[in-house]
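Exam revision sheet. Question 4 asks you to relate a sequence to its structure. Input first:
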Amino acid sequence: MTIIEGTKENFDTEVLKADVPVLVDFNAEWCPPCQALHPILEELAEEGGNFKIVAVDIDDQDELAEEYEVSSIPCLVVFSGGEETERKVGLQPKKRLQKMLGVK
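Answer key, structure tokens:
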């Protein structure tokens, strides 16, 4: 599985209408914790599972960041059934991300 680039155009399809839990990573290129998180997310994506990972660059997709009230990054939001179920801000360890997604 690969990390999907989230945009205003595909957010509804990739996140809100997904039939699996989706971890959305709101990030920016200039953010060191975001860059440190990226390899962890890539590792999770490579391991695969019953989930998706969508990365949203807040500089390119500022409307999405505003809509979901992202004020600090990295901001990790899990959506299930189109609803936000959990949110964490800051660099998170892989085990916490797995727990957020219900992955063992």
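Marking note for examiners. DSSP finds four helices and five strands in the chain.
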